[in-house]
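Morning!

As promised:
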Amino acid sequence: MHELSLAQSILNIVMEHASPQQIAAVRCVRVDVGRLSGVVADSLDFCFTALVAETPLQQSRLELNNIPLRLACADCRETFESEGDVFCCPSCDGSRTTVVSGMELRVTEIELVEEAEEAI
Amino acid sequence: MNVITIERKILEKNDEIARVNRELFQQRGVFVINIVSAPGSGKTSILERCLERLKPQLEISVVEGDVQTDFDAQRVARFDVPVVQVVTKGGCHLEARLVQDAIARMDLSNVRLLVIENVGNLVCPANYDLGESLKVVVLSTTEGADKPLKYPTMFRNARVLLVNKTDLLPYVDCDLDELRENALQINPALEIFPLSAKTGEGIPAWCDWLLEKSTARP
């Protein structure tokens, strides 16, 4: 439901990092999306496309990098991957686990086409 | 191709305002709970029961979040506690900014407990920090024992689980032990209080916990 406001936040971040001259050259915005971030990838993609339509950013697309959920066990030090349904350690059955990755929601890179490439 | 490396959190603006809210609450010594659940689980009914019981012993204020209407604020106002209604007009969750605006309209000087009742939704509010001390998730027995597994982010991020509508247990297919097991599988640190806003069963235990947390000096 809130993917539209997330897409707007992504656009704001892009605008802050690309100069006005660079905006039209943006082709790809890379975003890390953790398994537990609560984001529906298709929906975020749809909202982003809708927001950039008929703007200088219209040729840009979103590239989502899905980050799996990884947990670390405080008892046996094991780290393990989870689909989001298991949070207990599969090795020692310990319940004192912490999330190592999978909560991410961040813009990592923007890719711009260079003028020479565009001319071709 | 030219690449600009950024590494910026998409929710950084929200997180920043949440941090400011949290600092303010800590300075004032206010214990803040952010109550979340699906629509109709009984957040407001539980709150009414708590106000009834805690009002004589504790300075309480309430922020009510709803998509539309101020019905809940009216219900809470009957208990003669300060309440600010936030209407999100379609927004599926409260954000730190909305809470910041709401508390700017309140006098927090003597308040010990601030209750923020979020918009009914088990998905989006999980990822928006409001600056609260902790999240309290409400799940009613009619929703089924499988919900913690279906909405893990919410149950993982909460500190307390209130299982409401225990009075309906004889009539619904909800096994309390199974529900407890599922919830603890997602979050072993969860404190669980089964209760009924309808009959009042379990309300004293939850209120005692709230009272202790709200009056404990940091």
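Residues 34 and 102 of chain A are 4 Å apart (CA to CA).

Hope this helps with the figure draft.
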